[in-house]
Amino acid sequence: MRERFQLKKFYRISDYQNSNVSEFPHLVSLGYDEILAKQVQGNDVTLSLLAHLDGTKSLGEICDILSKAHKISEAEIFLQVRALIDAGLLLPEHKSELLSTEEIIRYDRHLLFYSIFTENPIWHQEKLAKATVAILGVGGIGSWVAYNLACCGVGRLILIDSDFIETSNLTRQILYGPSDVGKSKIEVAVNRLRNFNPFINVIGIEKKIQNYGDLDEILPEIDFAGIDFIIQSADKPEKIHFWLDEFAYRRKISYAFAGYIEILGVVGPIVIPDKTSCLMCAEAKIHDFENADLKAIQDRFQAPSFGPINSIVSSFVVLETIKLLLGMEESQLLNQRLTYNFLKNQIDYEPYPKNPNCTQCGRKND
Ligand SMILES: [Zn+2]
């Protein structure tokens, strides 16, 4: 009876006459949404009980108050509390050995969000606090990805980049401002994220990835065995997607791709080694130019990049990452990728099927 519960704060409440059941003359309706809507049969005590269930009083204290005010037994009140708990309407008091009180206050709205689909949202927050996500590239996509993961309280972020901040980055790279131009992206990103969420551990690795071996060289700097997920958002050099694909696949780390092509935002596929297709399943289209003029033109290539598309792509990939880290339902980005078309405001899924002859994940490698 010392436990404290509170009615989930997102419930809006209406009180109707329940003429069918004389014992319970009230029909208390909570929530409007299809997922949230609940109805509870109640008597004169029910509304008072719901009003007292604000998380500040123990069940014993509430029973004491209501039994005196309404002249009913504590056992009857407790039965109603039990029914409310069973209906998923109440949240237990947030207790955590991992998270501080300040963190619990900080994540309050996220905890409320998790409570829509889980009985003890604090476990979700703790899972995120224990998770590690590495982000390859903290530019247009990666800076938003890191920011969103920091919002959610993912406990350890590893950022990998070697670029310096340019004025043309400021339209879309959320972690940088005009006074940062010329500075190292890693240095500024790490400081900004640590300042934004001091409860997470942000590690920056300033390293130019120019070949597969460069990824291997990062190994001594961080414990790759402890990485739960990698998000690949670097766009140069062109082969970096395949290096990361091979690197993470060999180490059995799940990973996702996020980027854009002209007016399309592209999210995925998410690769879970030994389960889904990998990037190598599709034929690689890498441009190697021997002709000097062609190479010179190719070297000038600059992809168009639009801030809001960077933002939406990053949100999609982070949402899927969070669901994976929390062990929720299977991602929609396995064996397919999502595209967002700016002109049509349309989301489509493109198949990215497993190729039985894939040199990396195909049958002969089983
Ligand atoms: Zn494959």
From TrEMBL:
Pfam family, one: ThiF
SUPFAM superfamilies found in the cross-reference section: Activating enzymes of the ubiquitin-like proteins
UniProt GO MF annotations: nucleotidyltransferase activity; thiosulfate-cyanide sulfurtransferase activity; ubiquitin-like modifier activating enzyme activity
GO CC annotation: cytoplasm
Superkingdom of origin: Bacteria
Chain ranges of the THIF-type NAD/FAD binding fold domain: 107-359
PANTHER family in UniProt: ADENYLYLTRANSFERASE AND SULFURTRANSFERASE MOCS3 (PTHR10953:SF102), UBIQUITIN-ACTIVATING ENZYME E1 (PTHR10953)
Protein name: UBA/THIF-type NAD/FAD binding protein
Species annotation: Turneriella parva (strain ATCC BAA-1111 / DSM 21527 / NCTC 11395 / H)
Lineage: Bacteria, Pseudomonadati, Spirochaetota, Spirochaetia, Leptospirales
